[in-house]
Design goal:
CR_Ser/Thr_kinase, Phosphorylase Kinase, domain 1, Ser/Thr_kinase_AS, Kinase-like_dom_sf, 12% strand, five-stranded antiparallel β-sheet, transferase, single chain, protein kinase activity
């Protein structure tokens, strides 16, 4: 057994053992953590967060609250504290600990370490000072801070982060919940993909499996919502939605502009693109700083990523290549995918890879459903049937 695997096995033991053995296994865990230099004492985190002071609370997810803290060496940290009453949070917590400890990339949030102290389980991350993208992008009093240069760099950074997760990390990782609130921005506006509670490893010996649906309304690919077909192309779809949100300043899940014959942001962008008016989706706040050629290219790229047929969507490696090249001709996008709609699988054009990287793991969230036939899938997948949970995190059956 490798040192790394031994570390991860020890990491999740406190969630499985009975209370009589917890003290002994916690000692083992601390020894392994010490070797991996990822150990934080509970006392250190109590001091750093001023005893988890409510004024230091950054937010709360299904796992529990997140607090800002400051270590004695001056480093600012974010501490995820597992709620004792959250069974689903426990699963997400374990999942995030296992996955993030394996990855390191400029555009993925950095897990600094963890703490297991009796019933207390905590994960410690780098603190990202500019908060999450959604807090700036969808608030009119702050979106001006995101000029075109910053938005373009955010698109490129998220693309490189996803490329790393899909192709360059130790295992292929499908995030499953790429959205504006899960993109954190540091003091230099570098984007970092966060919240790996629902992420899944791709089993190398499988090419296609079905899984239960978990994600956020407005970002999920139609084949995933309707049939539970999960692949890296589901992340690509979510990334495409994010591109169009960055350009328009509009949230896809609550898109509403009067006098527009469009079902959602994707449909509106596609119709304008077909009429040669892509720039009309642009956020007015971008007018002083926009580079029209880049904006038009990114609109087209967003539409390519959100095509109904997953085989037509580019891989993240192709997206990164397209963004790094000088502007040129891109493929013509087909109609974007809308959950509840049918699509006919198209013949794959040159330069596109087949959908790969699926997960066989089921998710036990009460808000998830497994779709078994097209008729029930279409009804269940309509956007009116999905509503965000109180924390705005996951869709719940209405």
């Amino acid at each position: 057994m490798s040192k790394s695997k031994n570390f991860f096995d020890k990491l999740i033991k406190p969630f499985k053992i009975n209370s009589s053995k917890e003290g002994q296994n916690e000692e083992d865990l601390e020894k392994i953590a010490q070797q991996e230099q990822k150990q934080f004492s509970f006392e250190t985190l109590v001091a750093a967060t001023k005893d988890f002071n409510p004024h230091h609370k950054l937010g709360e997810g299904g796992f529990g609250p997140v607090y800002k803290g400051k270590l004695d060496d001056g480093r600012e940290i974010a501490v995820k504290k597992l709620s004792h009453s959250s069974n689903q949070g426990k699963k997400e917590f374990q999942n995030e600990a296992k996955l993030l400890a394996r990855v390191q990339h400029r555009n993925v949030v950095n897990l600094l370490g963890y703490c297991a102290h009796g019933a207390e389980k905590l994960l410690v991350y780098e603190y990202v000072s500019n908060e999450s993208l959604d807090k700036l992008l969808f608030k009119s009093n702050r979106k001006e801070e995101l000029d075109w240069k910053r938005r373009y760099e955010i698109i490129g950074g998220v693309a490189r982060g996803l490329l790393y997760l899909h192709e360059d990390s130790h295992n292929c990782i499908i995030h499953r919940d790429i959205k504006a609130s899960n993109i954190l921005l540091d003091e230099k506006w570098v984007p970092k993909i966060a919240d790996f509670g629902m992420a899944r490893l791709f089993p190398e010996d499988q090419t296609h499996v079905n899984t239960r649906v978990a994600g956020t309304n407005g970002y999920m690919a139609p084949e995933y919502v309707m049939h539970g077909h999960l692949s890296v192309k589901a992340d690509v779809f979510s990334f495409g939605v994010l591109i169009l949100e960055l350009i328009s300043g509009q949230r896809n899940s609550s898109f509403s502009l009067h006098n527009l014959d469009a079902q959602n942001l994707l449909d509106w962008a596609y119709k304008l693109y077909k009429r040669g008016k892509s720039l009309e989706i642009m956020d007015p706040a971008l007018a002083p700083s926009a580079v029209p050629e880049q904006v038009a290219m990114c609109v087209q790229l967003g539409l390519l990523c959100t095509q109904s047929d997953p085989q037509l969507r580019p891989t993240m490696s192709r997206v990164v290549v397209l963004m790094s090249k000088k502007l040129g001709n891109l493929e013509e996008p087909t109609r974007p995918g809308i959950p509840g709609s049918r699509y006919r699988r198209s013949r794959r054009p040159p330069g596109f890879s087949s959908s790969h990287g699926t997960s066989g793991d089921s998710d036990s969230r009460t808000s998830e459903s497994t779709f078994t036939n097209t008729a029930s899938a279409s009804a269940s997948a309509s956007t009116s049937a999905l509503a965000p949970d109180p924390h705005g995190k996951r869709p719940m059956q209405g």
